[in-house]
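Hi P.,

Sorry for the delay on this. The queue was packed all week, but I finally got your sequence through. Input first:
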Amino acid sequence: MIGFKKYSAAKKSAREKVSAPTIPVRIPPKQTNSAQNKSRFWKPEYQKFRVRSGIKTFRDLEVYQQSNQLSAEIFQFKLPPKAKNRRNLTVEIDKLQTWTKQIPRLIAESYGDKFGNLSQSLGKLETAAQLISGIIAKIDFLLASLEHSDSKELLLQWLKKYQIQRVRILNLKRAWGRIFRK
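Then the structure:
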């Protein structure tokens, strides 16, 4: 037979000894801290936008819940008693309260419209984002007008929350546009 080599029994037993089956060794996973697990693309706020459970109504949307809560907080706001130009600031706060009521309403309406008329639904979300831009401008005006430090601190908190809400509404608009367009 050409091409095949014959091995003697002695060589065969030597080969079997070398390639004897070994017991697999389990290597423990590398221990790292949580900071090392975060890559440069990891964003902690992105995890908050994941759907955690089925959304059955607009009340299940975090954007709606948080905008409703912010609206309620603004309705409880009172001007400090020693505020300068109190009458004009009261008018500005009334406008702010009116605008904050419209945002949860627009989110609820856009949720209902997304199944029938998607473009109208996305338009309402865009209107809500524009209203939030107006609210941010009003809060900036009130920050410049008020001198009371507690009121300024509260207005700064609202300013940050509304900036986040605007981004979330635009993210929701983008997601609905991707999912429901055919």
